[in-house]
Amino acid sequence: MKSRLFIFYLVLLLISCNQPAKQLPILGNPTVSGNDTTYPTIANFSLTNQDGQTVTNQTFANKIYVADFIFLSCPTICPKMTREMYNAYLPYATDERVAFISHTIDPEHDTIPRLKAYATNLGVSSPKWQFVTGNQDSILNLSEHSYFSTAYPDSTSPGGFTHSGGLLLVDKNRHIRGVYNSTKPEETQRLISDIQTLLKEQF
Predict the structure, then answer these.
(1) Domains plus CATH for the chain?
(2) Which end of the chain is more exposed for a tag (fewer CB within 10 A), N or C?
(3) Strand ranges in 39-193 using DSSP code E only, listed in sequence order
(4) What is the mean pLDDT of each run of 10 residues along the chain (203 residues)?
(5) pTM given for the model
């Protein structure tokens, strides 16, 4: 009887070991040329963080990161977005393979000192969590065309902007691997789990 149980559990172990590791999808419409498939990547950018330092794609070389688009005077979903981003940040606060970036879509008012104060009040700092500003058109273009996120000035919306509330998971090859609704805490838990999945895949 014991030998049968041993064989049974051994078979289960072998089956589990042979299961392919879970992989997250690569989001966006790929370009197919012959046998080659190319997925969209985050475009090159150059922005300035809360410490007045330049942040580019190279800043995130060999890292995976979570991105969002907010503005500090936002009276609606931005506080929820930042709270859920922070909840995703906490399990990886000391993991150098994971970073976070929040882009302001209101650079006129969200100055570097304001971004610094906001980050300090939140208890986070660069380079782990970058709060970045720059040319507004460039940021909005990055949001729409690289991150597939809605963000634009809208005088009829609270705070003067319309924008989506997504948190976006980007791999070390600059591919988007997940989008998460920051208004739903269960989505944050999915993000936390997906970060771990992506770490296993890429490191």
Answers:
(1) 24-202 (3.40.30.10)
(2) N
(3) 46-48, 54-56, 64-70, 98-104, 129-132, 151-153, 161-163, 166-170, 176-181
(4) 42 45 91 89 98 98 98 93 98 99 97 98 98 98 95 88 94 98 96 99 98
(5) 0.88
